Design the sequence.
């Protein structure tokens, strides 16, 4: 198996979808300015993206091994390539909705396939930990790039110039398609059950296992923390640090970059250390940043800010929490997948995506509620609660995996 070609394709896949998924806020803004829709109508784009991810993950995860991960990823890349080109020529709000439906459907297939394929191209738990962290880190750099890639195609004289970005994204999708199509992919024919019905039953039966229950709670708590902070950081920057709107948005990219760097660092650390001490240190460090650094940022006198270079160091302090929370999600996913036989990686990946989406949605809503009720200066302090619960869950996970609670 030409693992390098497959791994490179997995990296490019994730990178492209990071940009597309994170562009929804930008396209919402463009839809209002260019297509003349109001805020409520434009907000449907978020649902166009998220609902297909959850629905398709639930439907396809159990029997994707029957179709084949390679075929699934190739179909997803082809679909999103066509959707990007369609967005360029369609140039309408309807096309934007269709684009994000296609992105959601494709990403569900890609993520289940990528998570399952990692188990096929790695030989042990530490290799699995490392590759999972690196791929998720690359994803975060794609998110950060979206904040700069789309504005790079903006033009004051041509309101349609921003659509040229979709040629770049279509080109990256085609490039990944070519890498993957030429790679020899031995999928091992690991199929959960004897038929599609049995495949689905196998996925649902995972929810009865203690290790999976604890993991699902852990993943839910983490995504609640990460998405809550990522979604509301621009608002925090504007309302608390009193940064201009454009600077507040660009400052949010600092968190994405720190998440990317943190995951790459975790990829290296887990080559040398077990996942458990790495995650314990990360959570304690995250809680320390929230408890001690956040109040310093809230009470700081930022002064007049017009560009990123005007922001004092204290303004960058809180987003650095991304370095410490970054390793948690990929390592948790890797731990539970490594504890499963490979034939169950696809259905487990489906559950990961579903509960991650639920955690992200609920986390954003809870932080939004706290912003409204407690104030932007206090809302992020409440992330200490899920962090503490996650710390407890890690000890339980460690105990279960140490006892050999693999789900055979």
Sequence:
């Amino acid at each position: 198996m030409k693992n390098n070609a497959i791994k490179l394709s997995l990296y490019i896949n994730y990178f492209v979808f990071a940009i597309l998924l994170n562009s929804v806020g930008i396209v919402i803004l463009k839809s209002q300015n260019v297509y003349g829709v109001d805020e409520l109508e434009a907000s449907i784009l978020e649902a166009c993206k998220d609902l297909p991810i959850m629905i398709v993950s639930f439907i396809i995860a159990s029997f994707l091994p029957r179709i084949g991960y390679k075929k699934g990823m190739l179909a997803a890349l082809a679909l999103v390539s066509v959707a990007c080109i369609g967005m360029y020529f369609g140039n309408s709000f309807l096309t934007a909705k269709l684009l994000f439906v296609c992105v959601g459907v494709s990403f569900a297939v890609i993520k289940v396939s990528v998570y399952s394929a990692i188990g096929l191209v790695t030989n042990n738990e530490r290799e699995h930990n490392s590759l999972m962290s690196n791929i998720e880190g690359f994803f975060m750099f794609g998110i950060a790039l979206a904040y700069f890639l789309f504005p790079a195609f903006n033009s004051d004289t041509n309101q349609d110039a921003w659509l040229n970005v979709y040629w770049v994204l279509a080109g990256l999708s085609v490039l990944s398609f070519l890498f993957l199509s030429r790679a020899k992919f031995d999928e091992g024919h690991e199929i959960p059950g004897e038929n599609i019905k049995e495949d689905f039953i196998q996925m649902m039966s995972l929810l009865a296992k203690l290790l999976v229950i604890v993991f699902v709670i852990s993943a839910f708590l983490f995504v609640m923390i990460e998405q809550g902070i990522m979604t509301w950081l621009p608002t925090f920057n504007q309302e608390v640090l009193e940064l201009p709107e454009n600077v507040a948005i660009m400052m949010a990219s600092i968190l994405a970059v720190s998440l990317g760097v943190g995951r790459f660092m975790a990829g290296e650390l887990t080559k040398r250390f077990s996942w458990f001490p790495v995650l314990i240190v990360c959570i304690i460090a995250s809680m320390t940043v929230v408890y001690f650094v956040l109040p310093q940022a809230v009470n700081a006198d930022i002064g007049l800010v017009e560009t990123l270079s005007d922001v004092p160091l204290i303004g960058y302090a809180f987003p650095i929490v991304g370095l410490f929370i970054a390793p948690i999600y990929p390592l948790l996913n890797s731990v539970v997948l490594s504890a499963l036989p490979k034939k169950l990686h696809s259905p487990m990946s489906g559950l990961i995506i579903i509960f991650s989406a639920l955690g992200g949605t609920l986390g954003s809503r809870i932080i939004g509620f706290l912003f409204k009720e407690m104030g932007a200066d206090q809302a992020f302090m409440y992330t200490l609660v899920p962090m503490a619960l996650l710390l407890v869950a890690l000890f339980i996970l460690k105990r279960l995996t140490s006892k050999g609670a693999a789900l055979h």
Notes: The chain has two domains: 1-182, 195-408. The two ends are 26 Å apart (CA to CA).
